[in-house]
Amino acid sequence: MSSTDTTQGTALVTGASSGIGALYAERLARRGHDLILVARDMAKLTALAERIRSTTHRQVELLPADLTAKADLLRIEKRLQSDPSISLLVNNAGVGATSTLVESDVDSLDKMIQLNVTALTRLARAVVPGMVARGKGAVINIASIVALAPDVLNGTYSGSKAFVLAFTQSMHHELAAKGIQVQAVLPGATSTDFWSTAGVPVSHLPSEIVMKAEEMVDAALVGFDRKELVTIPSLPDAADWDRFDAARKALGPNLSRATAAARYTA
Ligand code: NAP
Known about the structure:
This protein is of the alpha/beta class. It has eight helices and nine strands. A seven-stranded parallel beta sheet has the order 3-2-1-4-5-6-9, sandwiched between helices. It has a two-stranded parallel ribbon with strand order 7-8. Helix 1 crosses helix 7. The model has no long low-confidence stretch (mean pLDDT 96). NADP nicotinamide-adenine-dinucleotide phosphate (NAP) binds next to helix 1 and helix 6.
């Protein structure tokens, strides 16, 4: 789907003040969505909204919120529950870390879980019942390739993104038949402020593993239009994911049985 004049409904994008979220906002407006943009930095949101309004003439509303603050989170949940124009939630806000568990500040890890896991879950839970009642809607959850590679970065971050992947797979299982499309996007290293916020500027990474944010978001939207449940923009051969997922599903019938496996019994 390319740019269009007819409205696609409203997309609520979290973490829209920079990086991947700002690009989703811009691309979705071009595709005909009105926007509700959520993040803490009102100055950045305002500048982005002005740019989007002038280039696309779409409605852009700003809802400044710290999604780790309960009152702010509840305010965004209420909006998701009560606004039937919302056809798409992009659960993008997230932070990472590069420190080891032993070196990490536990309150920072706790905040990361609040943002990457708790807020993402509560926002999805807020929007989905209305979508089910309307028989349509979509949720894009931004995970990460570390969902599949927990030995690469900070383990709490990897765990939070493994949650996002599993949660999205479960949402699909529950909601696909009700007309709701869900997608987990698993970016590899992407050129945004994420890395400097997490403690390592992106310039310190080997350039051959870093994708431009524009390319990542555009690829993810191609996956969305193809109704992919899991999109890994940098994976050259989609069959590699299919085999991985098939191996996981093949375990299924043997994961819960009345008896322990023979290797554990004398
Ligand atoms: P980014 O440029 O740092 O953007 C993060 C966004 O989250 C910002 O808009 C930030 O806005 C918002 N945010 C942070 N804390 C928040 C809070 N407490 N409440 C509300 N909003 C908050 O990084 P990015 O790369 O675009 O990250 C977007 C998503 O992509 C994240 O979920 C990240 O885990 C994921 N991801 C990134 C990479 C990568 O290499 N860049 C790879 C895989 C996955 P404010 O500061 O204005 O609140």
